[in-house]
Amino acid sequence: MSVSVSVPTILRPVTKGEKTVTADGGTVAELIADLESRFAGMGDRLVKNGALHRFVNIYVNDEDVRFTGGLDTTVADGDQVTILPAVAGGAGQGR
Amino acid sequence: MPVTRYSSLLEAVGGTPLVGLPRLSPSQKVRLWAKLEDRNPTGSVKDRPALAMVAAAEADGRLRPGCTVIEPTSGNTGISLAMVCRVKGYRLICVMPENTSQERRLVLRAYGAQIISSPAAGGSNAAVAMAKGLSADHPDWVMLYQYGNPDNARAHYETTGPELLADLPTITHFVAGLGTTGTLMGVGRYLREKVPDITVVAAEPRYGELVYGLRNIDEGFVPELYDASVLSSRFSVGPQDAVRRTRQLLEVEGIFAGVSTGAVLHAALGIAVKQVTAGSSADIAFIVADAGWKYLSTGVYGAGDDADAAAGLEGRLWA
Question: Looking at the predicted complex, does its ipTM rise above 0.85?
Fold first, then answer.
């Protein structure tokens, strides 16, 4: 199970500058474990005390995993995973 | 005939139309509805929280005649506050990222507001931090702080939510953009109380990399108002999808909306397709937060393909 993971600027020092990396796993937790095995330090930055870090958002095919099972969210071949830091939104909508 | 005469501009806030989208709706059973918040006095949904926050601060004595109001805002809230402060006689200072669109700055200055720019790198986070710092340095300034002020969400709980339900008693889904989270928290809570099976969906604009230029993850920011339990799901929508849907809304239904509405429509259409596939009926209402005027210089409404127009949004706060 190989998926493409988009890495935000802030985490690229960990991926040696790579913007997109591939990872193996059937769940988000397994993807993170696979990333940690190749990019040491990734796990600590994404997960705190067994849960997703408060200021980290992970999306599978643009949907926030906090609403689809969190770290247990399943991923399938070809899925797009995006990692983003939580930032203050705009005004449009908000915004 | 509904009453359309008001004793002052402030009373004309809210009461916006909900319009059907017969051409964009996928079927007779799955219908899309747009709440036109650009029809508020300054042209955005933010008139509601701005008025509510100022009124509450006056009521509890924080705001007195001659006071200065300071607020971190990337635009619409600032414009709404500028109008309310102008009408009520307060001085306003807006702290905003330097990459906010020129149109917004010009409107703010026209209303007499003062602008302090925060660095583009760091996005709204930097504006929030700078406004908090300035507020601490000037205890006599009043920061209404839209990201943590319960009156922001309350405005939507008391006005936007009831308006939606009165106009669309069969509502099944509510979709809005996620910024301060005030709209989603207020409307979401109201609808959850009244419509037990309601689905509340957030569409979060995904900006260019510059906007996420934090130095470390712990500098991240989640608005104090945010309560994930109000939401059913949350989608991140990139600039290309937002541009495509903004154009589609204009071309197919004649609605000239801002770019963040394109992101919201993208999420709403995704839900609509799922409902059709499931054979369900649905009435999906979404918020048009503002019109396209303030985004004309981005090139979103011009010729050229969606990808080129989306590239024009890179590094800018488009919602």
Answer: yes
